[in-house]
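Why this split exists: single-chain examples teach little about how molecules sit against one another. For that reason, every record in the complexes split bundles all components of an assembly together and asks for one structure covering all of them. Below is a record exactly as it appears in the raw files.
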Amino acid sequence: MHMQATFVPILLIVLGLAFSSCQSTGETSSTPEAASAPDSVYLAKGQQIAASTFQSLSGQLQQAMKAGGVQEAVSVCQLAANPIVDSLSQVHQAEIRRTALRVRNPKNAANDAEQAILQDYQSALEEKTAPKPKLVDLGNGQVAFYAPIIAADLCLKCHGIVGETIQEQDYAHIQALYPEDQAIGFQAGDLRGIWSIRMANSTVSD
Ligand code: HEC
């Protein structure tokens, strides 16, 4: 899969950076039970959640498209209805969301903070640099993890160009379900959106 081929090196680089910065700052903590987990822990957790979710969605999409074509697979790209996303949310006590500059479902529209991250990632890609996962302390006992979602070939059957990578009849079906759809016109390698994952900013217990 194309996506994994590009995603994995970025992931490794980021985890590498995160762990090396952890080693240089982690040694002075005197009360480990009371301290907040270091950023690297949340970055790693966020990466793990994003990668697992992405892998399970991609796998399910491929299967559904093979079995019943694009129209049958349309519901698979909803996170809300996905049992794997559900169990990941519970295991990690996380709120898992995706958003984008152009969304298909208006419920996925970006808030101001997400909008800013999306613009940063978009500029990074335009400048041919890899957009990096990012952690933000929300100050309310939660941390937000953001990471880019890059369009792969598989995605273009539903998010590509109508009449080219998306078949007209498939798009008619999508539009009937999502009359406000803006999530088309993407090419492989484009920023399709971001992960936006919220986790409790608590002591690490696992
Ligand atoms: C079979 C059609 C189909 C395929 C293939 C598909 N998607 Fe989607 N995608 C959808 C639908 C339908 C939605 C709206 C889901 C919802 O209601 O939340 C969506 C929503 C999204 C969203 C949430 C933001 C939004 O636009 O509402 C992202 C991000 C996304 N898709 C990325 C991808 C990526 C990345 C791939 C390839 C790995 C992909 N999609 C493949 C149909 C598809």
